[in-house]
């Protein structure tokens, strides 16, 4: 049975694909990417947890059912391993004439693949998706140490993001 992909590959920028190192591809997340190291790549960002294949697929198919809102893409090496990933999700607003805002999150590149501009290519591809889906702006959340890179990507430092982490001992509801 062929793998499912999260969203239409028509939203992948051919310019970004052409700019990747030879043999690398950028594509939507696939239902088969659990075995190809998708979650391993995310560990460069934060704790991922012990996610089973069934849990991965449950989340994958939830995102696929909302493929007009969630766009996770991956960069695949010539060896068919996931070496980079990123997500843009589209928020529906009342302001700006019921406008759409893209939020770029979870840009991750395998530690052994950093320095090859793969993170840059992921962000470019996600910006393209934001534009193609009709967003009036795209917001990129990143760490302070990564913020200098983002100026080069035509992002402007604006506003301040604050975070409240819910304590682990608090009863957390799940949707």
Describe what you observe in this structure:
This protein has helices at 14-19, 38-42, 53-65, 95-98, 118-132, 147-151, and strands at residues 25-28, 70-76, 82-92, 100-109, 135-140. It has 175 residues and is an alpha+beta fold. The chain has a single domain (9-151), classed as 3-Layer(aba) Sandwich (Aminopeptidase). A five-stranded mixed beta sheet has the order 1-2-3-4-5. Helix 5 (118-132) links the parallel strand 4 (100-109) and strand 5 (135-140). The longest helix is centred in the last third of the chain and has 15 residues, at 118-132. The model has no long low-confidence stretch (mean pLDDT 90). This is Glucosamine 6-phosphate N-acetyltransferase. It comes from Dentiscutata erythropus. Belongs to the acetyltransferase family. GNA1 subfamily. It is found in: Endomembrane system; Endoplasmic reticulum membrane.
């Amino acid at each position: 049975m062929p793998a499912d992909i999260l969203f239409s590959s028509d939203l992948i920028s051919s310019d970004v694909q052409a700019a990747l190192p030879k043999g690398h591809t950028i594509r939507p997340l696939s239902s088969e990417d659990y075995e190809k190291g998708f979650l391993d790549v995310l560990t460069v960002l934060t704790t991922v947890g012990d996610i089973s294949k069934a849990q991965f697929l449950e989340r994958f198919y939830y995102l696929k059912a909302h493929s007009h809102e969630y766009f996770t893409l991956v960069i695949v090496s010539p060896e068919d391993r996931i070496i980079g990933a990123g997500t843009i999700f589209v928020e529906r607003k009342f302001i700006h004439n019921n406008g759409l805002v893209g939020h770029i999150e979870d840009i991750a590149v395998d530690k052994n693949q950093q320095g090859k501009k793969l993170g840059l290519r992921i962000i470019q591809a996600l910006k393209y998706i934001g534009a193609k889906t009709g967003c009036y702006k795209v917001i990129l959340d990143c760490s302070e140490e990564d913020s200098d890179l983002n100026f080069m990507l035509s992002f402007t430092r604006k506003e301040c993001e604050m975070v409240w982490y819910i304590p682990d001992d608090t009863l957390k509801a799940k949707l």
